[in-house]
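[job 4417] fold queue: 2 targets
>>> target A
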Amino acid sequence: MTAKTRVSTDAAPAPAHTFSQGVRKGPIVQVSGQGPVDPQTNEYLHPGDVAAQTTRTLENVKAIVEASGATFDDVVMLRVYLTTRDDFPIMNEAYGAFVEAHTTSGVLPARTTVFTGLPREEMLVEIDGLAVIG
């Protein structure tokens, strides 16, 4: 039986609550929901700018994926949580640019987008991910 291990990196924000940045069990890596937070200062960035928040959030997801020993090409699923439907086209454009630039295999991850409330008022977007190494 493969042990479950915590994934942790200074290249992404420290968890604010009682959870891990990511968890790896065998070849499977689950990244906790990330927001537009600077990993050095733990400050929320880009108020009101969903494109910039999306890019910063994906950079945090990518850093945790890489800390697990995976690459962004190993990401099979990303879940995007938005606070408003009106932000979808702008998020989608920023998301597409980031994902295409960091997916060298040409096979983009699957995605689900959900409209919901988020834990912090300044957060317009949160993203979690699932990677499978190998």
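>>> target B
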Amino acid sequence: MADKTIRVLLVDDHQVVRRGLRTFLEIQDDIEVVGEAGDGAEGVARAEELGPDVVLMDVKMPGMDGIEALRKLRELANPAKVLIVTSFTEKRTVVPALRAGASGYVYKDVDPEALAGAIRSVHAGHVLLQQEIAGALLSDDDPAGSTGRGSTLTEREREVLGLIADGRSNREIARALVLSEKTVKTHVSNILMKLDLVDRTQAALWAVRHGLTS
């Protein structure tokens, strides 16, 4: 079981919040809290040192905030999945976090079991978008720059893109479409290249914005 344990790093400037998260997560059989950090800069350093699978990170922190930390984390050799955990729900906070590379976004008052589920979900490669957040993004500027780029996608790529937006991992997409996982990875790479996107989160947002979700 040890090789299946999800290694988590907590990054939040409030010690009480970190303590509460740690207390709950440490009773999960498949989740291990490997470290903590009180700001973005320390979080990046600890992530580089510890190599966690998932980083739980606040957005608003003194010094280097969560958005800048997300950008720095993506530059690491083996970047962790990042799940934003915050009380800030405004669109101006949500959009930059997702564009900076967050795999998911939950609120600090999230049910503990739901939080554990969210960690498992992003670790499995899912994109975690709450309905109201996805809705808020629909009117935002197109990160792909032009709706017309969608016309370059094949029908199969559009199917794959829709499943990405539904939060499916490559393995789940492969099963749903009766394809090999390697073929799905190729489709995902082609989608990102054609739409000029950098990751699955941006792909999911593009799909939501252009009505490709189920």
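[job 4417] complete. Note on B: The beta strands are 6-11, 31-37, 54-57, 81-86, 104-107.
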